[in-house]
Specification:
The chain has two domains: 206 residues, Rossmann fold (3-Layer(aba) Sandwich); 159 residues, Glycogen Phosphorylase B (Rossmann fold, 3-Layer(aba) Sandwich), CATH 3.40.50. It is of the alpha/beta class. The strands form two sheets. It has a seven-stranded parallel beta sheet, sandwiched between helices. Strands 10-9-8-11-12-13 form a six-stranded parallel beta sheet, sandwiched between helices. The chain starts with a strand and ends with a helix. The protein is globular. The model has no long low-confidence stretch (mean pLDDT 92). The chain contains 14 helices and 13 strands.
Length: 371
């Protein structure tokens, strides 16, 4: 069984790219197709892989802002000429589900999320763009077209895998397709559990409006407790200007540094509502540290309330403040060893085994359907 891998684009590191890196370990001989890539990024994270890109790689168009690229992406996806293979295993948050493949090729898609800016984040996306009336008038029908394309693209997939029951429900709602949950992996062996910790709380996140880090900043401005924020993104300067003296923006340039931040934290704050799954809470738990998280979305599938963390259910600072105060009251009850055990259920070895089994089983089913 020959396998080809595909991923939207290779220019930034996040949860989807971490999953992809483990897929390349499962199928080391598989070529990797993408819309476009950053040479330095590929050198750092996917060195030695055979990368095949769309025509956008050689075009100046790819340097445009994301919203200006949108009209070109469906055509770029559909123009990718996938080499002869048995299975395409795609990893996508938006585009790769739209590959046009020959009838005898089985398409298995690890869908990290239905395309958020076209579905459940549509209104917020338009607001974030801060468009004038004319640009908004142009963009709105384009997004309507892309939503129609996105639904049609999802129908081309033979089998869906996804990262949580939360995302599974959204795939059914927007695409009317079933999906099998295989939780994203965390290499728990990289994380260490310390006997003692420091007094700071920790946020690890991309600093964009969707991640809701502003909520943590507002809450800790009122609490006055030390908070360390690690991450980059479009909202960083705004958050810095908002933050009090008790809030520090730090850098973790290596995995070793990030692991150390996790291990020494008093607890990790995860403020994103309706996150598809959320690798940060599992990483925190792998270091034996409790998580105080928004209680809607994939966090409900990884965090055990009262054992490995606390939830807050309202998207306002007071709700988070109350959760932090509840955590402090019960802090002595948290056992780092028990927390670590919960994280081990999401270990990379389990992920790899389940992916291999699913791909093999699905390909056999696909062949039977074609007879």
């Amino acid at each position: 069984m020959k396998v080809v891998l595909a991923h939207d684009y290779l220019n930034q590191w996040g949860g989807a790219e971490r999953v992809l890196s483990y897929l390349t370990e499962i199928y080391p001989a598989a070529p990797l197709y993408t819309l476009f890539y950053d040479e330095k990024f590929v050198e750092d994270f996917f060195s030695g892989k055979k990368i095949i890109s769309s025509y956008l790689q050689k075009s100046k168009i790819r340097s445009f802002s994301h919203k200006y690229l949108l009209p070109f992406l469906p055509l770029a996806i559909e123009s990718l000429n996938i080499e002869k293979t048995d299975v395409v295993l795609s990893s996508t948050t938006a585009w790769m589900k739209g590959l046009v493949l020959k009838p005898d090729v089985c398409h298995i898609c690890y869908c990290h999320s239905p395309t958020r800016f076209l579905w459940d984040w549509y209104s917020e996306y338009l607001e974030e763009q801060k468009l004038g009336k004319i640009k908004k008038t142009i963009l709105t029908p384009l997004l309507t077209y892309l939503r129609m394309w996105d639904y049609a693209a999802a129908q081309r997939v033979d089998f869906f895998i996804t990262n949580s029951q939360n995302t599974q429900k959204r795939i059914q709602k927007y695409y009317h397709k079933d999906a099998t949950v295989i939780y994203p992996p965390v290499d728990t062996s990289k994380f260490k559990v310390l006997k003692n910790h420091d007094d700071y709380f920790l946020v690890v996140s991309r600093l964009s409006p969707y991640k809701n880090v502003a909520l943590a900043v507002k809450a800790f401005n009122k609490l006055g407790l030390p908070l360390v924020i690690i991450g980059e993104g479009s909202q960083k300067e705004e958050l810095k200007n908002m933050a009090g003296k008790n809030i520090v923006f730090a850098e973790a340039k290596t995995d070793t540094q990030l692991v150390d931040f996790y291990a020494r934290a008093r607890a990790v704050i995860f403020p994103t509502f309706d996150e598809d799954f959320g690798l940060v809470p599992v990483e925190a738990m792998a270091a034996g540290r409790p998580v105080i998280a928004a209680g809607r979305g994939g966090t409900r599938e990884s965090i055990v309330e009262g054992v490995s963390g606390e939830f807050f259910n309202e998207n306002n600072p007071q709700s988070l403040i109350q959760a932090v105060q509840k955590f402090i009251e019960n802090e002595k009850n948290y056992n780092p060893g028990k927390i670590r055990k919960i994280a081990e259920k999401f270990d990379v070895k389990i992920f790899k085994k389940k992916i291999e089994e699913f791909v093999s089983r699905s390909y056999e089913e696909f062949k039977k359907q074609k007879k």
